[in-house]
Design goal:
The chain has a single domain, classed as 3-Layer(aba) Sandwich (Rossmann fold). It is 54% helix and 14% strand. It contains eight helices and five strands; from the N terminus they run αβαβααβαβααβα.
Amino acid sequence: MKERLHKNVILLGMPGSGKSTLGKLLAEKLGWHLVDTDLLMEATHDRPLQDIFDLLGYEGFCVEEERTLLQLDGERQIISTGGSAVYSESAMSHLGSLGLRIFLNLPLEDVLSRVNNFEKRGIVCRPGQDLAALFKERHPLYLRHADQVIETVGMSIEKQVHQLQQLLN
């Protein structure tokens, strides 16, 4: 079981929680490949995430994100997911079969202070939904799907990398 869990590391969390930054640094430290699913979607569609969301709408974007996540495979990867990945039960189950799902838990106040381009960042939300409502909706989903939770408040990115390395050893 332990071998299965450590083939890959999957990072879950809200926009602004540091998934992409931490993923990049951890991949470099471990000598693993980084897979940023937001960037993968942008490359597939040859356009920014916000444009994909504008084109497909909420439901269509979620379907496309799920399709992208279900195609992931391989080993020795740090997979940085989009914040909305937790909406798909099948994608979360698939990611769980690929490796260790780690939720980077950051309090709402910190998310709000880090995400200042909410309307233009390609964040999946329903019309009229703000970042606080999104946090309230997603937080329980992250907790349910995570194999491990890292409390990142007040922790430097270097300390987060170190903590993840310790977790993997």
